[in-house]
């Protein structure tokens, strides 16, 4: 069977090895005569999956012991609400660095909960770049500072991070978690919906400093309370068992490949192919992101005219490339090249871009 040349932004490509393994175990997980989604979430089998997923993630991201790992539902979008509900203290503020559509949504939801304000913004330049760290303005008694490490829609990514801001750093890492090493001790909390780099949709990973759990008030609805999920090992209610199982398979795949440092090298190699095709096109292709802010995950670009863009997208589709149209809010083209997108597929796309340019 031929696999699609899948450049979808999310849900996105999964490693072929993961799909094959899931297929093999679909009806009979480890001789049980049942598929994973048929087990009770209180069964020994599922508890093992839950624990193993937890420890794989802890190893791969070098998560220190004083951090809790939660597997929740509701997507990254629910974290836009849960973060301020749990962490934004009364009489205090939260700062949001505005780098694109997702940070706008995060701020909007936080403002429904408490006093959240922009701490820096690159909106004036249509989010072409990540603001300089020196521009970030957050008060020393703020509850936290929120950033979006990779801007899926605009194709920008943070490459250096605020340190010593004296307030906990909270990061939406939905579209670049597991793509490179991170120094977790810089963060109070990170979160990510799974469907870009971690697995299928349905599970959201939240990693937070245990100390911050003290901020979750008893009055919060239980399902929206980090403390409740932490004290039940993410088994407070029925978790998305199949998504957690897939997450485990993806983490095993990442570990076998050589971990996040290896993935980062591969991601740099893949991104370089596409950025080279853009940079060597003498203006035929224009990258949306400024050089220092370019994303290794989402490569965004436009062509000289809307007609040419349309014809590029049309021919790309005819040639079997999936998911290259840019997000409706930006237009143009976007190639999402998450961990699971094979190098050969990116080589084919770079080849297609060069060929299309020569012909036009
Ligand atoms: C996809 C995405 C989201 C939204 O995730 P959902 O799981 O659909 O809620 C939020 N933030 C970023 C950076 C994303 O890429």
Automatic annotation (TrEMBL):
Give the UniProt keywords, A-Z: Amino-acid biosynthesis, Aminotransferase, Cytoplasm, Pyridoxal phosphate, Serine biosynthesis, Transferase
- Where does the record place the Aminotransferase class V domain? 6-349
The pathway to which it is assigned is: Amino-acid biosynthesis; L-serine biosynthesis; L-serine from 3-phospho-D-glycerate: step 2/3
Q: Could you tell me which Gene3D superfamilies the record lists for this protein?
A: Aspartate Aminotransferase, domain 1, Type I PLP-dependent aspartate aminotransferase-like (Major domain)
UniProt entry tagged with the keyword Amino-acid biosynthesis: yes
Report the superkingdom from the record. Answer: Bacteria
Top-level EC class as recorded in UniProt? transferase
UniProt-annotated binding residues for L-glutamate: 42
Task: List residues modified as N6-(pyridoxal phosphate)lysine.
Answer: 196
The EC number(s) given in the record are 2.6.1.52
- GO BP term (any one): L-serine biosynthetic process
Q: Which InterPro entries match?
A: Aminotrans_V_dom, Aminotrans_V_PyrdxlP_BS, Pser_aminoTfrase, PyrdxlP-dep_Trfase, PyrdxlP-dep_Trfase_major, PyrdxlP-dep_Trfase_small
Per the record, what is one GO cellular component?
cytoplasm
Its localization reads: Cytoplasm
Q: Which cofactor does it need?
A: pyridoxal 5'-phosphate
Q: Which family does it belong to?
A: Belongs to the class-V pyridoxal-phosphate-dependent aminotransferase family. SerC subfamily.
| NCBIfam families per UniProt | PRK05355.1, serC_1
Could you tell me what this protein is called?
Phosphoserine aminotransferase
């Amino acid at each position: 069977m031929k696999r699609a040349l899948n450049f979808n932004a999310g849900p996105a490509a999964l490693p072929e090895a993961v799909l094959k393994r899931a297929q093999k175990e679909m009806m009979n997980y480890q001789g049980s005569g049942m598929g994973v989604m048929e087990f009770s979430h209180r069964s020994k089998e599922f508890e093992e999956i839950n624990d193993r997923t937890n420890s794989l993630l802890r190893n791969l991201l070098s998560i220190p012991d004083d951090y809790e790992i939660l597997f929740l539902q509701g997507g990254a979008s629910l974290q836009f609400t849960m973060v301020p509900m749990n962490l934004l203290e009364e009489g205090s503020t939260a700062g949001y660095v505005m780098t694109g559509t997702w940070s706008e949504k995060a701020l909007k939801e936080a403002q429904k909960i408490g006093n959240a304000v922009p701490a820096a913004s690159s909106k004036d330049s249509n989010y072409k770049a990540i603001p300089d760290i020196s521009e970030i303005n957050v008060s020393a008694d703020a509850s936290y500072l929120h950033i979006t490490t990779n801007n899926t829609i605009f194709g920008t990514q943070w490459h250096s991070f605020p340190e010593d801001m004296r307030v906990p750093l909270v990061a939406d890492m939905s579209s670049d978690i597991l793509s490179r090493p991170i120094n977790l001790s810089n963060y109070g909390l990170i979160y990510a919906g799974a469907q870009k780099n971690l697995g299928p949709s349905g599970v959201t990973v939240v990693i937070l400093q245990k100390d911050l759990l003290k901020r979750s008030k008893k009055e919060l609805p239980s399902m929206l309370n980090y403390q409740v999920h932490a004290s039940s090992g993410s088994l407070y209610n029925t978790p998305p068992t199949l998504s957690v199982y897939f997450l485990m398979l993806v983490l095993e795949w990442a570990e076998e490949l050589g971990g996040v440092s290896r993935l980062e090298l591969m991601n740099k190699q893949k991104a370089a192919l596409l950025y080279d095709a853009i940079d060597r096109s003498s203006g035929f292709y224009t990258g949306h992101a400024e050089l220092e802010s370019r994303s290794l995950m989402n490569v965004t670009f436009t062509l000289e005219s809307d007609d040419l863009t349309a014809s590029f997208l049309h021919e790309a589709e005819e040639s079997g490339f999936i998911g290259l149209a840019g997000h409706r809010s930006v237009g143009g083209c976007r190639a999402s090249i998450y961990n699971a997108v094979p190098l050969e597929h990116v080589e084919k796309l770079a080849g297609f871009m060069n060929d299309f340019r020569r012909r036009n």
